[in-house]
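Run log // design_07
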């Protein structure tokens, strides 16, 4: 029999040998375009804090006021003792913004995806999932025990072939996709997904984690920007990225939310989100609704960064969002450049490695609060280290 402690030590050794060892970079300041790391000021291009709301004083003030009234912890599952007025207020605000009947809040986006997918579908159903969907979707499908069909990334023909071949074998056929892919920064072909949903009578589940707050006139998400939100049966998003707080939501019909309230295990068997996160999210959703200036600044930065990166012919993954990835041939190189950026240039740009992605890369996220000079410095630093294609 394998000794447990040897098993752990062997595994850790193996992870280190493969250059896949993961470690925290501990920051000692507020979130923002600049943060403090190891006693020095570094430029942050690795966060999902797209609009800078995670360090916004308006959220801070809302948290203080709410904590004074409601305390900190929510003390239990919403269905037992954890429900507070603020949870319902947040859900009403999300539902109103998204133009749906109802919304429900989970403690994270991860919990929302696994909780919804596993509650809604089972072995009678088929889930058609983009090859690059987020881990929380993959895990949710696994937990659901539904039949899983993986279609090639953003490949509508590949999806349609699978639907043609398998649609009649199952009770429900469900298409699930990120709207913006978290590790590539490209966009799902949402208009085509809607067409296939309608053609094959499928259910459509879209994860707007990286588009909530950023796209759509009021920051509702990419599906609103494209005018197809009413075709999406299950709209999922997080409050942990552009909204600068923490938590996940599912938005849709009243029946969907009533069903999930009664069936979703990550909702039922988990303590309700703590008051500070809920209070910050309420304020964030209010701000997002009219944050046209912040969104405009982010769009300008995205276009500028895209142009500057292209000038240098880096090996870029085509991006249609604030996420830009430079590919590397091997893990060592990606890690070494990331370390060098931090140590020599005071820039925090994380390397992303397998198993998160197949191709090692440095992932850069533009923020609304980056200045043009920040982005110039970033590109100059990258160009000093990375030889063009
Ligand atoms: C596409 C996508 N979905 C879901 C999640 C999970 O969200 P959260 O971080 O709020 O758990 C993430 C976060 O990394 C994500 O990128």
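design_07 sequence
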């Amino acid at each position: 029999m394998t000794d447990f402690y040897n098993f752990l030590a062997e595994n850790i050794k193996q992870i280190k040998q493969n250059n896949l060892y993961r470690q925290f970079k501990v920051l000692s300041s507020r979130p923002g375009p600049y943060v403090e790391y190891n006693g020095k000021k570094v430029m942050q291009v690795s966060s999902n804090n797209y609009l800078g709301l995670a360090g916004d004083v308006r959220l801070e003030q809302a948290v203080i006021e709410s904590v004074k009234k409601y305390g900190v912890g929510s003390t239990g599952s919403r269905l037992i003792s954890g429900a507070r007025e603020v949870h319902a207020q947040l859900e009403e605000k999300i539902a109103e913004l998204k133009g749906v009947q109802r919304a429900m809040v989970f403690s994270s986006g991860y919990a929302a995806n696994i909780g919804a997918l596993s509650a809604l579908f089972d072995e009678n159903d088929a889930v058609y999932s983009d090859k690059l969907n987020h881990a929380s979707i993959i895990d949710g499908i696994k937990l659901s025990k539904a039949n899983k069909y993986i279609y090639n990334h953003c490949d509508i023909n590949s999806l349609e072939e699978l639907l043609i071949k398998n649609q009649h074998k199952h009770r429900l056929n469900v298409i699930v996709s990120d709207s913006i892919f978290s590790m590539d920064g490209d966009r799902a072909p949402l208009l085509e997904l809607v067409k296939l949903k309608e053609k094959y009578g499928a259910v459509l589940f879209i994860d707007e984690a990286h588009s909530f707050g950023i796209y759509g006139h009021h920051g509702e998400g990419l599906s609103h920007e494209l005018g197809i939100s009413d075709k999406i049966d299950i709209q999922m998003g997080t409050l942990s990225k552009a909204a600068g707080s923490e938590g996940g939501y599912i938005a849709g019909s009243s029946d969907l939310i009533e069903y999930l309230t009664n069936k979703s295990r990550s909702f039922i068997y988990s303590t309700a989100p703590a008051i500070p996160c809920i209070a910050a999210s309420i304020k964030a959703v209010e701000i997002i609704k009219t944050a046209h200036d912040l969104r405009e600044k982010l769009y300008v930065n995205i276009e500028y960064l895209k142009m500057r990166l292209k000038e240098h012919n880096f090996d870029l993954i085509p991006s249609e969002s604030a996420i830009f990835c430079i590919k590397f041939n091997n893990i060592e190189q990606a890690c070494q450049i990331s370390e060098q950026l931090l140590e020599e240039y005071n820039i925090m740009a994380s390397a992303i490695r397998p198993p998160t992605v197949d191709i090692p890369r440095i992932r850069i996220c533009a923020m609304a609060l980056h200045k043009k000079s920040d982005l110039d410095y970033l590109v100059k630093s990258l160009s000093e280290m990375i030889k063009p294609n």
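The chain has two domains: 18-51+292-385, 57-289.
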